[in-house]
Specification:
- There is one protein chain.
- With 287 residues, the chain is an all-alpha fold.
- The chain is built from ten helices and no strands.
- Helix 2 runs antiparallel to helix 3 and helix 9 runs antiparallel to helix 10.
- The longest helix has 28 residues.
- It starts with a helix and ends in a 22-residue tail after the last helix.
């Protein structure tokens, strides 16, 4: 993906949990995180579709990653639109849940079918798709419990299942890459939070605040990339305005913008190591 997939997933979850917290308090401010996330997803689609990865990345991504990034961005844009329908009261809550349910069912069928094929090909690319499917499922359960609180009256563990799946995948990834990290502790805490909540050990408000704290801790690891993701819309608008007014020298304008980007966000300067002086006898040695 255009960003590390964990950055993409964590930022989405952070926006969704912020939205759910606002919905818990029944405030119109709840939709501000969704608006911010919506603009970021639109920017990702534009950057990926027009091959502007140099704005946030040093090399172009593969064709498969390009289309998976665009597809998942469009999926979550669709979820945002469904949630906006409810917020603007343009449709009945049952219709909203029905639309979300149809979209979620389609996602699960497609990802489940494709994941089986990818697993057979011995590829890890299916991890990201399972993560994002779990996010869609978790948000649906939380949104439904807030909007129709009488619909879930018993211990269902429906919201715990996707979190457990994500935690297992994360642990599996860490083992494959050579050892467990401290992030696993945060995932375990998140799973415990869900189990306690499902057993009525805390209120939904306390549960959402606990989940928010866990996500903030997870995002601290990739704080720079998360900030870049949310700042992307504010970067693209001036970029297109500047290029539009400098359309007669488009290439030079784009290069100037890239140079300024490297000055602000680029890596450290390359340290040049001087070549040592060798005698004539050294040229006879094998490398």
């Amino acid at each position: 993906m255009i960003f590390e997939r964990f950055v993409f997933i964590a930022s989405l979850l952070l926006c969704y949990v912020s939205f759910l917290l606002g919905l818990q308090y029944k405030t119109s401010m709840a939709y501000i995180p969704l608006i911010l996330s919506f603009s970021s997803l639109c920017s990702i689609v534009i950057v990926t579709g027009l091959q502007l990865q140099i704005l946030v990345h040093k090399k172009a991504i593969s064709v498969a990653d390009k289309w998976s990034t665009i597809t998942w961005s469009v999926v979550h844009l669709g979820i945002h639109c469904i949630l906006f329908l409810d917020g603007l009261e343009l449709s009945n809550i049952l219709v909203v849940l029905c639309l979300y349910g149809i979209l979620l069912t389609t996602i699960i069928i497609v990802v489940g079918t494709c994941s089986c094929y990818v697993i057979l090909q011995n590829s890890r690319s299916w991890y990201a798709h399972v993560y994002l499917t779990c996010v869609c499922f978790w948000v649906f359960i939380q949104f439904m419990s807030l909007r129709t609180p009488d619909s879930i009256t018993e211990q269902t563990y429906m919201s715990t299942i996707p979190i457990v799946a994500m935690a297992i995948l994360r642990i599996t990834e860490d083992i494959e890459y050579g050892g467990l990290t401290k992030e696993i502790i945060v995932w375990v805490i998140c799973v415990v939070l869900h189990i306690v909540y499902e057993n009525h050990g805390m209120t939904h408000e306390q549960f959402l605040w606990g989940t928010m704290i866990v996500l903030v801790v997870l995002c601290l690891k990739e704080a720079r990339h998360c900030c870049m993701l949310f700042a992307l819309p504010f970067v693209l608008v001036p970029f297109f305005i500047y290029v539009t007014f400098s359309c007669q020298r488009y290439q030079q304008s784009a290069l100037d913008v890239m140079k300024k980007y490297d000055e602000l966000f680029g890596d450290n300067e390359i340290i040049r190591i001087p070549l040592e002086e060798f005698g004539e006898d050294n040229w006879e040695e094998r490398l």
